[in-house]
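<instruction>
Derive structure tokens from the sequence

<record> Sequence and structure tokens follow
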Amino acid sequence: MKRLGFILLLLLGGISVKASYKQDTTIVEFTDRGVKKRVTVYTSSKKDFELPRNLNIDNVLKTMGVDSSERKKALVLIGQDGARQDTILLVTSDGKNIKIVARDARDQLSRRDTLRNGNNDHWSRSDRNDDRDDDNDKNYEKPKKKSGNSRFFSRTDFGFYLGLNNWANGPSTVPSLQTWGSRFIALSFQRNATLVNGKQVDLALTYGPEIAWNNFMFEDKNYIDHTNEQVEFLVANKDLSKTKLVETSLNLPVMLNFGFEEARLKIGLGGYIGYRIGTYRKLKYSDSSKKEIDRDNYGLNDFRYGLTAEIGKRRGITFFGRYDMGDLFKSGQKNVAGMQAWTIGIRL
């Protein structure tokens, strides 16, 4: 039987080639910059596939139909080669599942193992007429359980949140907020406790402290005032270039995070509680550089709680949203009764 060979160097990575190997062996050879090694992949599965433009081991194996758990095993085995510079991956048909066996290129050439056995099937370890026990085969490396580095979620991470605030359910007398001036900023330290470490989906409990700044910037000459234990909104006699209310809080978000291996997508759902540690009002007049900063609680609730959700790529920008379930202001505030805050933004 003839062998059909495709030798693809990294320099030709921008070319898409259609490979067919219904009865022959296909060889894909390239240099993976991620693992800094030359990789050769052999397969004899009866498939047609379109080689990806970006030739790295994960993309090539994914195109061949190798599932995410087996691709991870290949990356782990290659990373454990130490000083070895060349790696051969043998992709074999095993019923409906495709298995990966990683072997050093020099060992592969020096041993009597071949790519095909007497039945013209692709090489697999179980097909060899070898009476030696599996544990005594020094060239065979058993796939290891996922380590912390191969899990979808890292054990700890640091998050920077940037979003836009607004409020809902406010009386008609409450002024509108400036969209871009009403910013939400938060710094968080999170711990991810993996609950399920599956082949396709990981599940983690994410929690950790957070410090957040909520800015509510008003339009035109409106500003907030707190007199006789009541909150009210007034209109300034002079033009204001800046008028806002700033709240600082310590929060504890808790989420269940789902990590989807194949799509490299993560989705988090949960809630948060927070405690207000500071509040001030800032006014800046248009005809003067002078700023007025007044510190007061401005009738805000000391405690906040609500729902939160996040969605994003595994190593990329994450979009988030938050909605306060409790009232923003304390009970008894007639002019701002029932108001709730919400936030949307990105996490870097």
